[in-house]
Write a structure and sequence with these properties.
- By secondary structure, the protein is mostly helical.
- The protein has two helices and no strands.
- Helix 1 packs across helix 2 (about 15-110).
- The protein is rod-shaped.
């Protein structure tokens, strides 16, 4: 305290503007500190909202992933059955083709 009073006394003797600057320096620092606190109070809720929105997006992505996984588990057996049915149809068409071929050969033998 004594040191600051001595500095203030010396500043008054040499330059009144320097004295004013020395007096205003703590006030300026205090105002800057209050500004930082005010900005943090304004920005913190915005950051919290952004964090909540990102969390919501993450949850929705997980839900979509689980739904796709469930759908794939449900559709895979159906696709397997469809594949088996297509193979059966292919075999039946092959059998029909062989039968038609055999009939055609029989008819040709009768004509010749």
């Amino acid at each position: 305290m004594l040191c600051s009073q001595l500095l203030l006394h010396l500043a008054l003797q040499f330059s009144p503007t320097l004295c004013l600057e020395l007096l205003l320096q703590p006030v300026q620092l205090l105002l800057q500190l209050h500004l930082v606190v005010l900005l943090s109070h304004l920005l913190l809720p915005l950051l919290q909202v952004r964090l909540l929105l990102l969390h919501l997006v993450l949850l929705l992505s997980q839900l979509l992933l689980h739904l796709l996984l469930l759908l794939s588990h449900l559709l895979l057996p159906m696709l397997h059955v469809c594949l088996l049915l297509l193979q059966l149809l292919l075999l039946l068409s092959h059998l029909l083709l062989l039968t038609l071929k055999f009939i055609l050969l029989q008819v040709l033998q009768l004509l010749l």
